């Protein structure tokens, strides 16, 4: 059987909150990518992005909001819940979102945050759509036009993308499709879901005998496993099993060996090498997704479950240090564990989560199943008090 659902202990929730909400009055350091057409374009993060500023980069702000929104929904009596709700009510206003959308309308912004930031904005909207409170519904309503902007960008971009991006970092196409597919399912956007399925099948359906020459030195995604996780979402059970047998035909022999061994992180003070903590976590999610697409008596399912545990054992002992490092480094890209920890504990948007070696987590039973959500994506600090 798959391991049980997990629950976040209070100290882990506090660490996640603090890693997302430490403040920086000058909003630096930051990594701002701009196409300048004149002196008037040179502005600070707060002026350019009235909502999503304060982290090292724009997409980190977006998925930090996702993290806070998820914490707020899962733990409505969380001591920091009032602060989270105040932040969202202050930030997610029509005027501020209009400022974000104005930046997107710049002629030079067509490729802004493609596809990683696009997918995370849709993932944030999917999370807000799960909120059943009046304020949650209000936030989702305010963000809806911007989600529509990125939906439209996906629609325009996918037919032009002849080849998928197979990197182990932000540009990976399969990762973006997986998140976009979750948004489509949550929003009940059947047309968008079909675009995603068609694109994934067109790019990946004929892939075979993957050699998995990975990881690279700064990966937080496994190109092979994220592709498999994506295809698990767009194919039926029988079709996915047949595809997986072609794509990774030697899994029962433990090959490719690179996919089964957790990666080592040599220097967690290095903002890029520490990506590898995120790689262990995202691999755990991918192996779980693969397992969920197989019958219970499939030997690959059992093998996948054991591999998940090994990767979690490698990743989670370091998680508190990584989370707290993001506080010490202010806005540097230090934490790649926060979203993984929260998603492990989310009963509303996923199949049973894995427990095991993770400190700060304790198991609890759950009996119902829901559509799977993503874990293992990188996370960094979000400014929460302005």
Structural write-up:
By secondary structure, this protein is mainly α. It has a domain at 5-30 and 157-364. Helix content is 51%, strand content 2%. The protein has 15 helices and two strands. The protein has helices at 10-21, 45-48, 58-74, 81-91, 94-104, 116-130, 134-157, 173-186, 190-204, 223-234, 237-247, 275-292, 299-315, 319-328, 338-344, and strands at 5-8, 361-364. Strands 1-2 form a two-stranded antiparallel sheet. The longest helix has 24 residues, at 134-157.
The total of helices stands at 15
Structural class: mainly alpha
Mean pLDDT: 80
Question: Judging from the principal axes of the Cα atoms, what is the shape?
Answer: globular
End-to-end C-alpha gap: 46 Å
Q: Low-confidence segments, ≥5 residues, pLDDT <50?
A: 1-6, 22-26, 319-345, 347-386
Helicity range: 40-55%
Q: In sequence order, what are the helices and strands, one letter per element?
A: EHHHHHHHHHHHHHHHE
Strand order of the largest sheet: 1-2
Evaluate the radius of gyration. Answer: 20 Å
Strand % is under 5%
Largest sheet: 2 strands, antiparallel
> How many strands in all?
2
Question: Which secondary structure elements does this structure contain, and how are they paired or packed?
Answer:
Blueprint: E1 5-8, H1 10-21, H2 45-48, H3 58-74, H4 81-91, H5 94-104, H6 116-130, H7 134-157, H8 173-186, H9 190-204, H10 223-234, H11 237-247, H12 275-292, H13 299-315, H14 319-328, H15 338-344, E2 361-364
Antiparallel strand pairs: 1-2
